[in-house]
Amino acid sequence: MPFPGLAKSLPPLLLGLTLTSLDSANAFELFLGTPELPEVLTATRLKQAPAAVPGSISVLDRELIQASGARELTELLRLVPGMIVVTDDIKVQVNYHGGHAAQARRMQVLIDGRSVYRPGLAEVDWKDLPVSLEDIERIEVFRGPNTVSYGANALTGVVNIITRRPEESLGTRVTYTHGQRGIRDGYARHGFAWDGGALRASVSSREDTGFDHRSNGSDFHDDIDLQRFNLSGTQMLADNQSLAWQLAFTDGRHDDRNHHRPTLDVDLQPGERDEFTERISRNYAASLRWDWDINPNHSLYIQSSLQHWERIWEWRSCDATVLFSPELRRLYREDPAYTMALIGNNAPLGYGTAEQQALGTAFYTQVAASYDPVTKRFAHTCGDLNENARESRFDLEVQDTLNIADNLRLVGVLNYRRDEATSEAYFSGSRHKDIGRLYGQVEWYPHHQWILQAGAMYEYDSMLADDSLTPRLAVNYLPTPAHGFRAVYTQAVRTPDMLELSADWQVYVRNLEPAAFGQREAYFFLSNRVDGNLRQERIESRELGYNGHFMEWGLHLDVRIYKEKIHDLITYWAKIADLIPTNRNTMDFHGWEIEANWKPGPHDRLRLTYSRIELDASHEWDSWYTPRHSGSLSWLHEWGNQLDTGATYLKADAINGQMFERLDLSVTKRWRLSDTTLLLSGSWQQRLDNNGLAGRAYQYDEPHVYWLSAGVEL
């Protein structure tokens, strides 16, 4: 048989017909070979050969992860065509095809099927994900809308992080990394097995000092200190049943500046306010999955997960006492623009209702009483404030997969999710919502070289007035099982998050010294309450593509040509004074992408990616971080004697008007001593530009960074 192992990807009868056809067709001799084709899981929840997938998938396998020398998951995602990685303030954001950097909230991110997309503020905390690179088996990135398979928020793509099974990582491994910019990382793992089961425990830490300074020369404080703990286990219950479970915990601390600046001129004394602050992040996650292979043509799984996020950000700040005026707060609630003009002494005379004029007169009286004409400063007060948030998610999912016939497969999913968020600052209390989903996907081979695929997701969200139904239709033509041409039409949605739908953003300050208007606790005048009258963002996508595996040449190639439009787009800055979300904006994308993976020999691997994006955005913020050209070129080589190297060149134009260009180098040497393996590796990143990876404000003192790692495996 020229294609062993394909029975998992193609119906048995059609596999036989296809191979018979190929054996008699000399035109396809180039495609014939013996290696097994890989399978991917993320596109439709069915195991499929890449040529049969209704879309483009990039797979970052374990070999590539290790050879890259990367310390962070986001650095690996730079190897995905069209993926943009930027820094917004101290947060790393990842967008497929760019868009507003502060709103990287249109891509679903999964760890072993568990969504890590935060429910309240709709963010992915890339720096704090509860998974170590050493525990990852591969990362599958579906490039394109996939609400059909994973629900709202998979508007532009899906990143599926698949960890190693415990039985595949037995024994003990310890590594330590030290390098420039305060890099100090550690990792320890131990795994063991018993009859029918296995368990792996791992702990890791990550520490560095981040950017060195801002463009104005001041120090940039974004140090990170992160610890992770993971426990993963499997147990066979019977020949056809198994359990898999995971526990994960992270505890991280991120340095930042006090982002509040006095609104009016005040005379601050040293030590009155916290110049630097610390954000504390804690993640807790637990999941349990039961798999049951009822028979060779029918399988079922049930997965449940519980997650909790804590973001603790507290600091002491100061401002003019008069800005805690109850009259000013009330006036701001009614008319923010007029209030800001009033504070700036630029309010028009005779403006507003009689009540507003009375409030304005009372405020001016308070201003006059608190102003010192000698120092030309206002009396001020200092107090403790916070932007703490706690979010949680319970998820329960049932998936049923059925081979109805040799040429027909069906998968159905029923999902329930409960999201909750609590924050005094963002919500003045708590918010919650219930989500119900029903998904179905049909894969039909009307002919051994043609696949018709249709899927749809129905979704109910208790915070929205309307439910959503998102379809996908695809036709794949496979001249051989290793080569496929596809045409795909998809609709997808993104649900506005809790902040966009129900924010009640206020600043409550405690321990005021001196007291403001006779109170030790009071509200600052700024506040924002949104009306929640938003629709879902919607995308319509059309795609033509090709995926081929030239076995004789060792070449795997994927090409994607697409045209997409996002309408009802919500673009805004998530700041208390600017939180005005609307559905007024649009983005139109069209372009093409290519990804090539070539193994010209047993010791070499070359990988090329390129993306060309043409963007028409109605709001300028959405075009700042969308480069027209971007790509990467990687070369992995095994030199023998357990010596491996990796080299990657990265480039993207016009990220916030600046070029991004970098060269990454890594080398790893292993020594095998009986049952022990020693390893030593080094990584070097050389910047060929002066881009702060997003904004123009962030810079490094040196254009390069390096780190060394040493480890032992038992």
Automatic annotation (TrEMBL):
Localization annotation: Cell outer membrane
SUPFAM superfamilies the record matches: Porins (SSF56935)
Domain TonB-dependent receptor-like beta-barrel stretches: 204-674
Coiled coil: none
Keywords: Cell outer membrane, Membrane, TonB box, Transmembrane, Transmembrane beta strand, Transport
Entry GO CC: cell outer membrane
Keyword field contains Cell membrane: no
Membrane-topology descriptor: Multi-pass membrane protein
Domain TonB-dependent receptor plug: 52-158
InterPro entries: Beta-barrel_TonB, Beta-barrel_TonB_sf, Plug_dom, Plug_dom_sf, TonB-dep_rcpt-like
GO BP: siderophore transmembrane transport
GO MF annotation list: siderophore uptake transmembrane transporter activity
Stated family: Belongs to the TonB-dependent receptor family.
Record-given protein name: TonB-dependent receptor
